[in-house]
Amino acid sequence: MTTFTLNGKPVDVAAEPDTPLLWVIREQLKMTGTKFGCGIAQCGACTVHVDGQPTRSCSTQLQAVAGKRITTIEGLANGNGMHPLQAAWIAEQVPQCGYCQSGQIMTAAALLAKNPKPSRKEIVAAMDGNLCRCGTYSHIIKAVQRASRAIEKQASTPSKRAEAAPATTTR
Ligand code: FES
Ligand code: FES
Which of 69, 103, 140, 156 could form a disulfide with 45 if both were Cys (CB 3.0 to 4.6 A apart)? Predict the structure, then answer.
């Protein structure tokens, strides 16, 4: 049995220790927002956060996450509200087929948690490993910039400060 925290709740998983985390999340825990793309850590579609770090779940073994905090796209929102990135993704109409997008958002969320005001260059560098066959890259950059502005605005409003602190590193 392997125990870890998924989106703020403790879970026990009975699976072989070398089972890919992606299989556990999708097949056993039924969180299907995280996608299988390449299966070899090359595309980013399967990105989740492990203790706040963007991580390829297709190439992370279950035994490596024992006792850790996992956040998937389903757990990114803070309470009932959307994460600023999710709102920005809608406003900028980023998705085309949508398949890569949860991985894109999880990578962007980890970036903003670490660096709330990234430059364009920093955004491009952080998002570099997340591939999109539909070519939504320019929209992704605009959405990350929009979310960054929203987080800054929230942080400057006292009553909104708690919401502005991206939830990803605290779950
Ligand atoms: S499915 Fe994991 S990086 Fe492509
Ligand atoms: S939106 Fe289709 S692969 Fe990215």
Answer: 103
For ligand 2, atom 4, the nearest C-alpha belongs to 132
How far, in Å, from the CA of 119 to the mean position of ligand 1?
26
Are 101 and 148 in a shared domain?
yes
Domain encompassing residue 105: 84-156
Q: H helices within 93-168, ranges in order? A: 101-114, 120-127, 137-155, 161-164
Mutating to test ligand 2, I would choose from 38, 90, 97 the residue with most ligand atoms within 8 A of its C-beta, which is: 97
Region 77-102: mean pLDDT is 94
How many structural domains compose the chain?
2
How far is ligand 1, taken at its centre, from the CA of residue 41, in Å?
4
Distance CA 115, CA 132 (A): 23
Give the ligand 1 atom nearest the CA of 41.
3
pLDDT at 52: 96
CB-based contact 128:108 (threshold 8 Å): no
Residue 131 CB partners (closer than 8 Å, separation 6+)? 37, 42, 43, 44, 45, 100
Q: What pTM, to 2 d.p., does this model score?
A: 0.91
CB 14 within 8 Å of CB 53: no
R_g of the chain computed on alpha carbons:
16
Q: Are residues 68 and 10 in the same domain?
A: yes
